[in-house]
Hints:
This protein has 468 residues and is mainly beta. The protein has helices spanning 213-216, 443-457, and strands spanning 11-32, 39-60, 66-90, 96-118, 122-149, 152-169, 177-193, 198-209, 220-224, 227-230, 238-250, 254-275, 281-305, 308-323, 329-346, 349-358, 361-362, 366-368, 371-382, 387-394, 401-408, 411-418, 423-430. It has a 19-stranded mixed sheet that branches. β1 and β2 form a beta hairpin.
Amino acid sequence: xxxxxxxxxxxxxxxxxxxxxxSFLFFDYIHKFNEDGHEIVWSGFFRNSNSHENFxxxxxxxxxxxxxxxxxxxxxxxxxxxxxFDYTLPLSxxxxxxxxxxxxxxxxxxxxxxxxxxxxxNNTPLVYDNSSDYSQINQAVYSTFASQWxxxxxxxxxxxxxxxxxxxxxxxxxxxxxxxxxxxFPSIHISYRFKGGHSLSGSYSKRIHRPASNYLExxxxxxxxxxxxxxxxxxxPEYIDSxxxxxxxxxxxxxxxxxxxxKKTRNKIETYKKYLDEKRIIxxxxxxxxxxxxxxxxxxxxxxxxxxxxxxxxxxYYYRVETxxxxxxxxxxxxxxxxxxSFTILKKTHLQFDAIYNxxxxxxxxEIKPSYLVSGSLRRSFFDKNLSLTFKMKDIFKTVKLEVLSxxxxxxxxxxxxxxxxxxxxxxxxxxxKLKKRKEHDEENERVVNDFxxxxxxxxxxxxxxxx
Length: 468
């Protein structure tokens, strides 16, 4: 886009450096009293991590004269520990009691520094720095009772959690933000299997979603000169009540499922956008109110032939978010679709095509427009399927776009983002040995693995070799 002669415009040079290193230790110990499932399981996880993120943002006028610069630096250090104890007692073939205790603690120190130079209006730099100390201890006791009666299986559980966390701000050390609370979380699951492969199940559960530590940081940080963010130490956790009713039917070469759900969220956490002036934006995080989601999902999978598998998935839902600001609300009705075709074109060669339609979404301030995507992949296996070579092409027809409409106090804005497409990846995987699937995924181990994957997948063309 070439600006008109009477336009005032500039361009930016942006340099960013980001690093993350960690060390972790985890263990599991199982003591079996007998072969009927009577056992005790101890597990622990410890992680020490350090991260930094620095960037320099320079602004220039059309005559290549530097007009401004921003130097931003963030450093973080975290120590996370978790210990867990689980006890399982089968009272009979159909009655099982489980109980446990878990304690999690984290301590995170965050420091932030910022310098802004306006060469056109003021040669005196604006310097700002701050630091915070965040700590949290969460303890939980829980128990479940599982049994069945005349073919009806049911499982009831209750979890009690005590949370103590504190956020200290260097600029105001005498007034830390503290939360000390105790919560109960009940759950119940019921299922029944009919003759002919039909099954029906229902459930209710209450859950909690705590804000991440960076949401609570009390100081401002900059993405660039025009965009900055600030945390909210007074942010409260979300509470979710979830209801589900599901039906499934299995055939010889196919399966069908129909699921309905209702979710209610209290203390809904959302990013809140506000304009400081006609150019600059600040993002903050607030408990905006509550929301409600009611929807249905269907999935159908079929082996059409020995060489062709077909899967379709659809989701239709109603969403409503109500804010605490004069009981204002926004609502929408959306549909999401997913199609997958898998072909075995040779004995060890597989071809797959995926088509996805995303109906968009809304928040209290934003509306994300619908988009769709078509992707494909080709995989070849070698050496008794221990070695595989996979080539993927994402967004084949260059259709992925992000269009966001935002409205708020005294403003409305549109954001349009596109990316380079198609997006190609090449991966080489070698399996040294097969590991047994763990009874429970360790969320911390999984997060570490995902961090590693994000680094690997960040390149448009890659070659990766790892062991599973």
